[in-house]
Amino acid sequence: MPTILLIAHGSRDPASIAEMQAFGREAARRLPYPVHMAFLELTDPPAAVALRSLVASGERHVIVMPLLVGPAGHQKNDIPALIHWARAQWPHVRIEYGTPFDTHALVVRVLQARIAEAVAALPDYVEEETAILLAGRGSTDPDSNSNVYKLARLLWEGHTWLSVEVAFFSLTTPRVPDAVARAARLGARRLVLAPHFLFTGLTLQWVREQAEAAAQEWGVEFIAAEHMGLHPLLFDLLNVRLEEVLHGRTAMNCDACKYRFPFAGMEAAVGQPQTSDEEHGLRGIA
């Protein structure tokens, strides 16, 4: 029987840490395998320490599942570097790797559900007067950023919202105030923030504050939907990703990977080795 190691990002925010740990407990309750939790940075236990502990306890088959919304440096570099290190340390242990939640249809359903919850009690809600702001953290990886745009389009399908805007907190554009301004110029009377965040935390708090301030500046009603959090469908998706590993169907996101194809301005990234450092994937190896 395999053991599941969930790897989350980690945080300085106690509420975020508590939510990540709660996700791990709920996953352990729902999945038919032992489940353990670890973190890339800022929070203990480090992923390397958790792997070492599992091997020391006699585990011979570990499936590493990333609790990440999409493909970027943590998924493509930090966790793979950890797995390469672990396989070299313990060649007798079978260590497999799943894929992040990505743009799966269940993620779209979770986002739709959070939006529906946010507007359910509004007395004068009209879709055609409402813009959705799908806001993510932002990345230097075009694969990751483009997935947010794909989710935005999938969210829009079947609805009559005025628009579904995309914004990022950092590292790329458009930023949150610019996306709110665009929605206002298009005629939105109401803006619903749909956070593309798995867990709460300081960054999500800042995104909400920026969106609300910009909406007030433009005279647009502002509603903040909940982040994805512990929505039940995410545990269904976690099980889907786990079944992919168990049946050899895991498909990594290589079609638009900057490490495989020369995107404009990123040509030097092609062929770079998977690396990490002792503040992320290799934290705790000493």
TrEMBL record:
Pfam entry (one): CbiX
Annotated GO MF terms: lyase activity; metal ion binding
Domain of life from the UniProt record: Bacteria
SUPFAM superfamilies tied to this protein: Chelatase
UniProt xrefs under CDD domains: CbiX_SirB_C, CbiX_SirB_N
Transmembrane portions of the chain: none
InterPro entries per record: CbiX-like, Sirohydro_Cobaltochel/CbiX
Keywords assigned by UniProt, alphabetized: Lyase, Metal-binding
PANTHER family recorded: SIROHYDROCHLORIN FERROCHELATASE, CHLOROPLASTIC
Protein name (database record): Sirohydrochlorin cobaltochelatase
Species assigned in the record: Ardenticatena maritima
The organism's taxonomic lineage, starting at the top: Bacteria, Bacillati, Chloroflexota, Ardenticatenia, Ardenticatenales
